Every structure is written in structure tokens, then in C-alpha cells.
């Protein structure tokens, strides 16, 4: 794993949260994107090398909707940049981690993604991200 790629924050409203984080970080939302496979609307902010991803549920079946119902708005996941997502998935499986998907899938911000189950990582949902080239 190379670096923290972003921190994902579950929110009720990307628009409202985007305004708050824009003021807090003194930087605008630079991108919004719908990820149909995850039923979410995302918004990204960047402050120096650090990125924040805001996640709003598009329907009640979304993992984000379920997360907010159970825990409220807040940090949802930490994403790490990787060079080879398939090799990293294989390595983590060999180390005993439980992955939430067997194959990488297309995520937001032009990335292939895979999630590590929170029960495998001390209660934190981990996302692996590889830039699609």
C-alpha cells in the first residue's frame, strides 16, 4: 500500500456537507460523481495531498443509508492507494483478511476498488484503490 488515498465520510447531503467542508478546508468541491453500483453520490475535496470523499445514499438499500441509520453521519472508510489491486487482494486474503468482493470493481474518481471487511481490520472499513489507466 502506497499512501492514504482518501477518507470517506458518510453524509445525509453531499451539498450541505460540501459547503461545510469547503469552508473548513478552504477549498472547493472539485468533483461530484454518481456511483450507480454502490447507490451513492460522491463529492471530493482536496487539501494539499489529502482527499476527502463525501458519500450520500441514493436510496435506502445503499450501504451508506444503512451506515447512517446505524451509526449516524461520520467517517465511513479509509482508502489506500495500491499499484496492483489484484495482487494486494491476493496478499490480504493469504494474510487472513476477509474481502467484501472477489474481484475489483469500478469505483468513484476513476478507480478500481475492493473493500476489506471491518471485522478483519479492527472495526474499520478499508478500501483499496488503483487508478484506472
Notable traits:
42% strand; 3 helices; alpha+beta; eight-stranded mixed beta sheet; single chain; 2,3-Dihydroxybiphenyl 1,2-Dioxygenase, domain 1
Question: Can I get a quick summary?
Answer:
The protein is of the alpha+beta class. It contains three helices and eight strands.
Count of separate DSSP helical elements: 3
CATH topology descriptor? 2,3-Dihydroxybiphenyl 1,2-Dioxygenase, domain 1
Could you state the CATH homologous superfamily? 2,3-Dihydroxybiphenyl 1,2-Dioxygenase, domain 1
Radius of gyration: 14 Å
Estimate the strand proportion.
Answer: 35-45%
Query: Considering DSSP H and I runs of 4 or more, what fraction of the residues is helical?
Result: 10-25%
Reported for the largest beta sheet, the result is: 8 strands, mixed
The tally of domains stands at: 1
The pLDDT mean sits at 96
The CATH architecture designation is Roll
Beta strand count: 8
Strand order, main sheet: write it out: 2-3-4-1-5-8-7-6
Assign an overall shape: globular
Which stretches are poorly predicted, pLDDT < 50 over at least 5 residues? none
CATH structural class: Alpha Beta
What letter string, H or E per element, gives the SSE order? EHEEEHEHEEE
Report how far the terminal alpha carbons are from each other. 18 Å
Structural class: alpha+beta
Could you walk me through the main structural features you see in this protein, from its secondary elements to its overall organization?
With 133 residues, this protein is α+β, with helices and mostly antiparallel strands. It has a single domain, classed as 2,3-Dihydroxybiphenyl 1,2-Dioxygenase, domain 1 (Roll). 23% of the residues lie in helices and 42% in strands. It has 3 helices and 8 strands, in the order E-H-E-E-E-H-E-H-E-E-E. An 8-stranded mixed beta sheet has the order 2-3-4-1-5-8-7-6. The radius of gyration is 14 Å and the shape is globular. The protein starts with a strand and ends with a strand. The model has no long low-confidence stretch (mean pLDDT 96). Its EC number is 5.1.99.1.
Amino acid at each position: 500500500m502506497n499512501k492514504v488515498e482518501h477518507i470517506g465520510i458518510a453524509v445525509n447531503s453531499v451539498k450541505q456537507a460540501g459547503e461545510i467542508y469547503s469552508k473548513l478546508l478552504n477549498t472547493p468541491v472539485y468533483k461530484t460523481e454518481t456511483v450507480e453500483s454502490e447507490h451513492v453520490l460522491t463529492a471530493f475535496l482536496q487539501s494539499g495531498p489529502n482527499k476527502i470523499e463525501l458519500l450520500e445514499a441514493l436510496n435506502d438499500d445503499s450501504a451508506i443509508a444503512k451506515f447512517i441509520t446505524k451509526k449516524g453521519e461520520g467517517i465511513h472508510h479509509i482508502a489506500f492507494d495500491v499499484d496492483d489491486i489484484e495482487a494486494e487482494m491476493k496478499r490480504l486474503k493469504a494474510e487472513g483478511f476477509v474481502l467484501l468482493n472477489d474481484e475489483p470493481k469500478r469505483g468513484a474518481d476513476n478507480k478500481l476498488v475492493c473493500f476489506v471487511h471491518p471485522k478483519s481490520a479492527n472495526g474499520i472499513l478499508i478500501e483499496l484503490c488503483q487508478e484506472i489507466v
